[in-house]
Specification:
Length: 445
């Protein structure tokens, strides 16, 4: 009896455990089916269209700016060299100081040149004394000529008087012959005295020439003495001296004593390509004869080595006479005011100028373009907010803008933010671009 009861109890417990197992299996299957349905629903639901920022392509006048790397040069960069050889006695300026035209920079030992001046002065005085002697000799020669001419006159009178007397036998033939011989001697004496006068005149000319030579030698000696004081030919900034007191310097010294640069205004020298030069000429409406004056109306900016923009505007100063056949560039120099000599020769910077204004240009922020294997693509959003990928041809870059030469039409909308999220034919949510549209847009406003 007890065994039957125990068997009944065991069967009852087994049925209970089986029921619990079935319910657990059913519950697990239900959960599995529920999760499966949820995952299937999440997979089949389409994602929402991505949001992108677009800009409308609007024609505008875009200033085309060009930039060139420039080297700063003084308006005048003068090498200061010794023009006479000698020992350097003194440096009379402070290295790097501003000097005026005519200021003495160095002094060379003047004693040898002072002695040369004194010698040249003595030679000049000697030549002048020789001239006075020559003048006295000429006066004496002329007096002798006059006496000879007077004697010649007497002998000619004697011959004229004796000739008829001989015919009438009033005097002898010997007296006439003596008178004739005396006349011939007087003529010879006159010619000799004339030669003496000519010689004295030539001596005067020679003395005058020697005076000119002596005076020139004196002036040269005085000039050399003046060269012992080395002066600045221009006003500007004097560099650090390359010679020291006691050095032997001269015209053949390979390195200049120093350099003086006129730095206000200062020149920015650069070399644009020939095509850029011609573009700039045409942009200002200049023909060949007045290209220089037309380019002179351009305004230039200077970006310094630290990235700051120089506060003063520059104007074209010089254009070289030729295009370099090796590089295809032409050298130009722009003058910038330089108060206080802040900018120094030898520095570097970037010169930029608006060379032309492109009318009705279509410009986009540069970030709207995507480069793919040398091709530039943009994402165009149509009226149904669908994306079309289109190849475009960019032109000039203007600040943060890129002028589009081909591939866009006015009024089209182009994706600027979110280009990485779109593909051909995709539906998007287009919003207005919130960033800056660059210099051209600001100019339009």
């Amino acid at each position: 009896m007890y065994r039957n009861k125990d068997r009944a109890t065991s069967e009852s417990n087994s049925r209970g455990r089986l029921s619990v197992g079935r319910w657990a299996a059913v519950l697990a299957l239900s959960v599995s089916l529920t999760n499966g349905c949820g995952e299937k629903k999440a997979q089949t639901a389409p994602p929402p269209p991505p949001e992108v920022e677009v800009v409308e392509v609007v024609p505008q006048d875009v200033p085309i700016t060009k930039e060139w790397v420039a080297t700063l040069k003084g308006l005048v960069d003068s090498d200061i060299r010794a023009q006479v050889a000698g020992y350097l006695l003194k440096q009379t300026y402070v290295n790097g100081a501003v000097v005026a035209k005519g200021d003495v920079l160095f002094e060379i030992d003047p004693r040898p040149f002072q002695a040369a001046v004194e010698q040249a002065q003595a030679n000049l005085e000697q030549a002048q004394g020789g001239l006075e002697q020559a003048k006295a000799g000429l006066a004496e020669a002329r007096a002798n000529q006059q006496r000879a001419e007077a004697g010649l006159g007497k002998t000619e009178i004697d011959v004229a008087r004796y000739t008829p007397l001989v015919k009438v036998k009033a005097i002898s033939q010997q007296e006439l012959d003596s008178a004739v011989q005396a006349n011939l001697a007087a003529k010879a004496q006159v010619e000799a005295e004339k030669a003496g006068v000519a010689t004295a005149s030539a001596m005067i000319d020679a003395r005058k020439a020697s005076i000119v030579a002596a005076r020139a030698a004196l002036e040269q000696a005085q000039l050399n003495l003046g060269f012992t004081r080395v002066t600045s030919p221009v006003s500007g900034i004097a560099g650090i001296a390359n010679a020291q007191v006691g050095d032997l310097v001269g015209p053949q010294t390979p390195i200049p004593l120093t350099k003086v640069s006129t730095a206000d205004p200062i020149l920015a020298q650069f070399a644009p390509a020939e095509q850029e030069y011609l573009t700039a000429v045409r942009s200002v409406g200049a023909s060949s004869p007045n290209a220089r004056a037309a380019l002179g109306r351009l305004s230039f900016d200077l970006i310094l080595a630290d990235g700051s923009v120089y506060p003063h505007k520059g104007r074209l100063q010089y254009i070289d006479r030729e295009v370099d056949v090796r590089t295809g560039t032409i050298t130009m120099q722009v003058a910038f005011p330089n108060p206080g000599n802040v900018l120094r020769p030898g520095g570097y910077g970037t010169v930029k100028a608006v060379v032309k204004t492109q009318k009705g240009a279509l410009a986009l922020p540069q970030r709207a373009l995507t480069e793919l294997q040398g091709r530039y693509m943009v994402a165009v959003v149509d009226d149904q907010d669908k994306v079309t990928l289109r190849q475009v041809k960019p032109g000039d870059q203007v600040g943060s803008l890129w002028v589009i030469a081909q591939g866009l039409k006015p009024g089209e909308r182009v994706v600027v933010e979110g280009t990485q999220k779109v593909r051909e034919g995709m539906q998007v949510v287009a919003k207005a671009y919130q960033g800056s549209t660059g210099a051209a847009a600001r100019q339009k406003q």
